[in-house]
Amino acid sequence: MTKPLQVVGIGNALVDVLAHTTDPDLDALGVEKGIMQLIDTARAVDLYAHMGPAREMSGGSAANTVAGVAALGGRTAYVGKVKDDQLGRIFAHDLRAQGAVYDTPPAPSSHSHETGRCMVLVTPDGERSMSTYLGVSEFLAPADIDEAQMASAEWIFLEGYRFDGPESIAAFEKAVRATKGAGGRVAITLSDPFCVERHRDDFLRLIRADVDLLVANEHELKSLYLTDVLSEAMARAEAEIPVTACTVGAAGAHIIAGGDRFHAPAAPGVTVVDVTGAGDLFAAGLLHGIVSGRDWETCARMGCVAAGEIISHLGARPEADLRALFTEHDLPVA
Fold it and tell me: What is the pTM for the complete model shown?
């Protein structure tokens, strides 16, 4: 029987604040290039004061993935915590406008934390360096998980960044039980090598017990398995997970599924402006292919084309019509 929802994402609910910068300015601000660092409110205020002209848009890694699947016509929903404040209302509006269901109750306006935000500094090479104030997003808890919604999904997609939270792992476990109990499947993204370092044991426990699809880039996967050799990390993943999708930057992506290996090249002719959200939209294209019943090589190509759209402009939400873009690349859209 067809389930009402194809993909339900669970993760951070953030508003991105994006600005261009230079490598010397990153050094002057004490921002480590190319990774995500957690910051507090005071640091967020200080960084914002030193940023150049900025652009604000809804973000959050798994939320970007869900927005991408919705843009491709998928039936999606999202679970992530915002506050009843201006940025929280912006996040909710943008996600619903994309076509996703978003019903997570907001934290009250009296809450001591604000809606989370991610300060994204983009250097001329397109690399993004993120400083994230999680705000109320950190407090996603089991009470925010609607078991009926989880049971109605073909897939749930868990965001690795959300392992940084006092009750979020318990929320993931509740969602996994409800999804698996109803015959659904579980995907997870590792999000960031440093996130993996902080929570390696929790990642591996969940992956080995319940994950059907692992999405990672080469640095994250090598961090998970404590190796500098990608082929070794992929072999370890193959032994533990039904399907692993690993992106390798300009070289595209690899998928290991059921003993078979597939490679998809990066989308051709793309000028890199900002790599923010590249992995998120790769996951969106990949998941859209999966729920549409496509073969693994086609799924990987879909992921690479969606990622190519995102890195061609500032920000992590699609600006082009992804369905039209798939048609241009001879990919199915339904």
Answer: 0.93
